[in-house]
Amino acid sequence: MFSRIARPASTLVRSLSTSSQHNAKVAVLGASGGIGQPLSLLLKNSPLVSELSLYDIAHTPGVAADLSHIETRATVTGYMGADQLGAALKGCEVVVIPAGVPRKPGMTRDDLFNTNATIVATLTDACARHCPQAMICIISNPVNSTIPITSEVMKKHGVYNPNRVFGVTTLDIVRANTFVAELKGLDPARVNVPVVGGHAGKTIIPLISQCTPKVEFPADQLSALTGRIQEAGTEVVKAKAGAGSATLSMAYAGARFTFSLLDAMNGKEGVVECAFVRSEETECKYFSTPLLLGKNGIEKNLGIGKISAFEEKLVAEAMDELKGSIKKGEDFVANMK
């Protein structure tokens, strides 16, 4: 009756996967959590993924068994506990890390630092040992600090490649696209707003002046729109009233970034995504800008480009906070026992 609707639903808007079939082993670390489960579902649904390796400290065998019944080709294996982490990572080409604790009302992303810093350091240490060539995509907050942590841990093992370590800021772009589309009556799938800077509060800098298609807003509306994009995560935290933070939209954004990366690794040309990476574009060591992705990760950093006076001010105002968050991550690894 329903003609097997949208099987295998391989065009989840935009490029949430392509129709071409490739073989990639992808690991999700933190696969049983609020982001990890829907992210794993989206990855299982993609023809770009041939093996899905799911790791967490609890419940992973159940999540893996559940997903393994879905009629798509990716094989799914669950791994649980520290003693199985190495096996989970063996042979992985892409590792996506949403592990950690979520925000609750009244918390900033930085309040998550102590718990999530340790988790990210532990998991990236295992990546350095078991899949040093893999693309590492960090979702765990605060991304402004967890990316420096990841980089420093990889350096300690002598396997750091800045072109293969990404802070996933895609949700900021997804939100910017959605909010602009709502205000202008556009199809959000056809809107693209680059978002630069970092991934917390005022370090999130949407470049509305570079939006395609071109849009214009009066100053007060532009200011309100920018503020909403910057605080959109808090909007969800408040709406969930203590039951967590953005999980479903984050899973969508994490899948979108992963599929773009896999497309580029498979030789697709012209794949561009923003991500928080090691950068020479500003005075900050790490900064999110549009990146041309390729077979080996970042092919070219496309930089900030031409921006408005309003956006220039936002960039200037973000610098101190961004530098502080970066240093906090670096210091954490320097002081690790």
TrEMBL record:
EC number: 1.1.1.37
Catalytic class of the enzyme: oxidoreductase
GO MF, one example: L-malate dehydrogenase (NAD+) activity
GO cellular component: mitochondrion
Catalytic activity: (S)-malate + NAD(+) = oxaloacetate + NADH + H(+)
GO annotation, biological process: malate metabolic process; tricarboxylic acid cycle
Domain of life: Eukaryota
A Pfam cross-reference name: Ldh_1_N
Keywords, in A-Z order: NAD, Oxidoreductase, Tricarboxylic acid cycle
Similarity section: Belongs to the LDH/MDH superfamily. MDH type 1 family.
Oligomeric and partner information: Homodimer.
Name listed for the protein in its UniProt record: Malate dehydrogenase
Organism (species): Cirrhinus molitorella
Lineage, top ranks: Eukaryota, Metazoa, Chordata, Craniata, Vertebrata
